[in-house]
């Protein structure tokens, strides 16, 4: 006999399990504070991707009531963002400020994931004010992640430029405090900010006046190299752009960050074509890249054939996609390469005809 399918767990039970898991995370954060060991916080942050999928109003309401002190002026606002009539009214547990910041961060992530953009801005501002009031090495990793979501909130609201001044100020502070995690994150956020508004000269100036920390994690190093490659490509330094983009792809996680690898590879293909080189065929056959790179495969075929008509058709068909992906400006420069290849092919053909005739 076939076993009967297990009945799905009620939502209240799922929420209880989620809260228990987050309590374990909070215990690890508290352990980090007591032992002054930032690496414990890193363990919690690595779980953030799976934790965020299980967040809802009931979970966040209970966490806010339990772990955020009544003296935190934004607590009432957080509870209003995540209303729940079934949650227990209990006195807040005495916890470190890092725990309160972590719970506040979970709230901000939930608002962003649910596209509650108007609520996310004041939540992000309150979170960052709290982060900037703490000067502890154990805060560096968590603080860097908070600044990422702060910038993300402003980007999703179409007000990314408004975050720039605070990010600049915090970059100076992180440099003085030898906060390598904060430096790497903030530098990448500022480069993303400038590139978003096509302010490539300002981005280049920022790079020339700062030093990317050598001990930054691979993810931030990969992002930095990607932005550097994009800036160099825009400034016509294709050889340097090609080198940076290759390094970015190598530093990216092998079995994750698929979106990042797709973006970097698209840019790499265009830069290779601008260099007059042929992109490697296996790139277009990769199962994680094949679909997203299909327009770039057609583009490559048109450029290598010197077929201006086909190039124009590809450009017209995928113009919106290229614009969205930020490669349109560079792709427009390929027109000259297409014409040059077409003329060279015509010259070879003409030479062969003359040779046969003679």
Layout of helices and strands, plus pairs?
Blueprint: H1 11-35, H2 39-46, H3 48-52, H4 57-67, H5 75-81, H6 97-113, H7 117-132, H8 140-156, H9 164-176, H10 180-196, H11 200-209, H12 218-234, H13 238-251, H14 258-274, H15 281-285, H16 294-305, H17 308-317, H18 319-324, H19 328-357
Helix pairs in contact: 1-2, 1-4, 4-5, 4-6, 6-7, 6-8, 7-8, 8-10, 9-10, 10-11, 10-12, 12-13, 12-14, 13-14, 14-16, 14-19, 16-17, 16-19
Radius of gyration from the alpha-carbon trace, in angstroms: 25 Å
**Please, how many helices?**
19
Helix content: over 70%
Broad shape: elongated
SS content category? mainly alpha
Through-space gap between termini: 86 Å
Proportion of residues in β-strands: under 5%
Main sheet makeup:
none
Q: How confident is the prediction overall: mean pLDDT?
A: 88
Key phrases:
mainly alpha; 358 residues
